[in-house]
Amino acid sequence: MKDFGGRVAVVTGAASGIGLALAERFAAEGMKVVMADIEAGALATASERVRRDGAVVLPIRVDVSQPGDVERLADETYKAFDAAHVVCNNAGVAVIGAIHEHTLADWQWVINVNLWGVIHGVRVFLPRMLASGDEGHFVNTASMAGLTTAPFMSVYDVTKHGVVALSESMYKELTLSGALIGVSVVCPGLIDTNIMRSSRNRPESLADEGKAGPMAQAFGQSLSDRLAGGYPPSEVAKKVVAGIREGRFYIVPAQPDVKGNIAIRANDLLELRNPTLRRA
Prior knowledge:
Blueprint: E1 8-12, H1 17-28, E2 32-37, H2 40-51, E3 57-61, H3 67-81, E4 86-89, H4 104-132, E5 136-141, H5 154-176, E6 181-186, H6 214-228, H7 233-246, E7 250-251, H8 256-270
């Protein structure tokens, strides 16, 4: 898919960070943009920001962990525009802690958003896009945490590895079938977003948060500091648009030293070597 003008993009987690940057970039390309997010106030502010330059924007409050919400997102998208050409399953949350410190609620919350949110987006939008016979593209947001692992990030790592696996299988299936739908998985490195403050959107029913010990807390603070000095979200959005045009599956906007950890893990696997301890 190379031409964006007049087409429809759907972005979850669109009220801030990478999601907002994607919405702005798609709008600049002349697309109509459906912006979905769980934070109603932030979504209203973000959608007005994207509209300022004349873009057509449809904001919809959505909790991607709820299948009914994602089905409603597709229904409202097709009701308004009768199409979806680019679907970015981008919403994500994070928790930090040692694996034995996490509660069941930690696992449920992060898996529900990060992995089930992508599953719901694919399940709901893909059949409609295939039925249209038009070209399109899915962009599933994983992370460098989907290609590598780090201590104190087990819950997050599990979900992001799942997104990479889902996306790779989806790419192979659509390629084998000759479908006009492309797939990309985005694995950002250190990006200046507020994901480390995602507990603001944690549901009351899953509020039983694990208590991170001193080592996990120190790791979390170090990671937060490094994220604050990371690439701006607009860098990810630029790479995503280029990746869609080029039909690129792996989109990895990551710092060279961070990206180098992919090779370290790959060599660990090839040499059947115990995992190399690395920085986040």
